[in-house]
Specification:
single chain; 332 residues; alpha+beta; Jelly Rolls; Rossmann fold; six-stranded antiparallel β-sheet; five-stranded parallel β-sheet; 9 helices; 17 strands; 25% helix; globular
């Protein structure tokens, strides 16, 4: 097999790519400023490449990806022309994943990296006589920000997270900023989204703010306003969908120690969107999390909070339906 020269242009969906003499590692924050994303690069979640894929066009019938030693069991997907053809399972300590028996014609190859474990790519190999080229993804750029429900630890595999499935169906170029255990309206994340290219932005906020009590009845609304307005410093007219939390029985109506419940947060988000519309933002939209994934889908949340693989498929469909009904993503 012949080796492809590693380049950051191979990685799609990453915010930055760390380059050393041994590997390239995609990050979902600017890795050289990771200390700014306190604590520890958003609690270590930003180095997990949710939604990040290696993308080439080639007629190779096999592709091999070298990685620095896997720290734990991880999954990687091979997607050909938009269709998942194989999921590889790499045990801890493994350094090679090999996808074989691919069709011989020229095709779009996407290797989705694990969303659960940091991945440092040490090499890429294809068949000796194969041709290949980099891919310039000209689709509309979608940035989605959220918690573990957007990070999708419990999906069937990396290309089957609800953001990845929705992006494929809606023909969007995904950057997933789902950070498990986080999404506390961090100001540095707002600045990062502001500075990234985007044609559509979605934010799902509230679930960990209520559970972690990190913002209160007093501070949640101003934090949300500031987060949105920071993004609007640059993305003044980009469609912006703000999603309230999906159903979680334990936190629905009972206020926590700082005065917030999911019911209260949904009402506060709706009021913020209405206020911003009154002040001239006509391209901001409220999506109720209960319309996205309500009580009727509770059976697809084994722990009562996180959708499982089947739940992610439902969320992808519901998200597409809600966006196509309410948000003019492709307008203009």
């Amino acid at each position: 097999m012949k080796q492809i020269l590693l380049s950051e242009k191979l990685f799609h969906g990453a915010v930055s790519v760390e380059k050393t003499n041994e590997y390239m590692k995609p990050w979902r924050i600017p890795f050289d400023k990771r200390e700014f994303y306190y604590p520890n690069g958003i609690n270590g979640q930003a180095e997990m490449p949710a939604g990040v894929r290696i993308k080439i066009r080639s007629n190779t019938q096999s592709i091999k990806i070298g990685i620095m030693e896997a720290s734990e069991l991880m999954e990687m997907d091979c997607v050909i022309d938009g269709t998942l053809v194989k999921t590889a399972y790499l045990p801890a300590g493994e350094t090679i994943v090999h996808f074989e028996s691919l069709a011989g014609q020229t095709k779009l190859i996407e290797i989705y990296l694990s969303q659960k474990v940091p991945v440092s790519v040490s090499g890429i190999w294809i068949d000796e006589g194969a041709e290949w080229e980099l891919v310039d993804d000209s689709r509309l750029q979608w940035i989605t920000y959220g918690s573990s429900i957007t990070h999708c630890y419990y999906s069937d595999s990396p290309s089957q997270t609800w953001p990845a499935l929705a992006a494929e169906k809606m023909d969007l170029n995904l950057t997933c900023l789902g950070y498990s255990g986080n999404c506390h309206l961090e100001p540095m994340v707002a600045r990062m989204i502001r500075d990234l290219p985007a044609a559509f932005i979605s934010i799902c906020a509230g679930i960990n703010i209520v559970g972690g009590k990190t913002l209160s009845d007093r501070t949640f609304t101003p934090a949300l306003i500031g987060f949105i307005q920071t993004i609007r410093d640059v993305h003044k007219d980009v469609p912006l969908a703000i999603m309230s939390p999906i159903f979680h029985r334990e936190r629905e109506t009972a206020a926590n120690e700082v005065g917030l419940s999911l019911e209260k947060v949904r009402s506060d988000i709706r009021q913020v969107i209405d206020m911003l519309k009154q002040h001239g933002d006509q391209n901001i939209y409220y999506l109720d999390g209960l319309d996205l994934f309500g009580e009727e889908y509770e059976i697809y949340m084994p722990d009562g909070l996180h959708p499982n693989g089947e739940g992610d498929k439902i969320m992808a469909v519901r998200f597409q339906e809600l966006i196509e009904a309410h948000v003019p993503v492709n307008a203009g």
